[in-house]
From TrEMBL:
Residues 116-160 form the RING-type domain. GO terms for molecular function: cullin family protein binding; ubiquitin protein ligase activity; zinc ion binding. One of its GO terms (biological process) is cell division. Belongs to the RING-box family. The keyword Cell cycle applies. This is Anaphase-promoting complex subunit 11. The keyword Transmembrane helix does not apply. It comes from Pristionchus fissidentatus. InterPro entries: RING-box_E3_Ubiquitin_Ligase (IPR051031), RING-H2_APC11 (IPR024991), Znf_RING (IPR001841), Znf_RING/FYVE/PHD (IPR013083). Residues 1-24, 40-64 are annotated as: Disordered.
Length: 165
């Protein structure tokens, strides 16, 4: 591959090279020459760092791929040699009413998932009632509250607006 403007030069290994090929370095020369050369200290030195930090590092075409992990029952997927096997799991959950800001009835102060003072068992017998003012109460609690008031229009016990549900 001699061109008219470049001089032919003999490299350390006895092959003809042009000046542009000499600048490529010993590893590139070995690939160009196609010869099997035993590595020397010069070939084993790490590449120099460049001042341009935006350059991406060169990736070799024969890079080692990550091994495929076979998932057995109880094993977690991982790309490392560390194998994790789940033997036991303890789950804890908490639930809340979505539309209600507080989790307790404003009248009896019992939790909504529990029943009111009048009911014996929680469930459908003591439903949750939400007023137009967005305050929520047990059905029996707000019913007693509105019956106990001596007003033509019952009011919410928390904000004193007219109670509508």
């Amino acid at each position: 591959l001699d061109s008219g403007d470049e001089e032919a030069v003999v490299d350390d290994y006895g092959g003809p090279l042009t000046r542009s090929r000499m600048r490529r370095g010993p590893i590139a020369r070995r690939r160009l020459m196609g010869s099997e050369i035993t590595p020397t200290l010069e070939l084993m030195t790490p590449p120099r760092r460049t001042a341009n930090k935006r350059r991406k590092p060169a990736t070799s075409s024969n890079s080692v791929e990550t091994p495929q992990i076979v998932i057995d029952r109880g094993d977690l997927p991982t790309n490392t040699r560390l194998q994790i096997k789940v033997k036991e799991v303890h789950l804890i959950a908490e639930w809340k009413w979505k539309d209600v800001g507080d989790d307790t009835c404003g009248i009896c102060r019992s939790a909504f998932e529990a029943c009111c003072v009048n009911c014996k068992l929680p469930g459908d017998d003591c439903p949750l009632v939400k007023g137009a003012c967005k305050h929520a109460f047990h059905m029996h609690c707000i019913y007693k509250w509105t019956e106990a008031q001596n007003a033509a229009r019952p009011q919410c016990p928390l904000c004193r607006q007219e109670w509508k549900y």
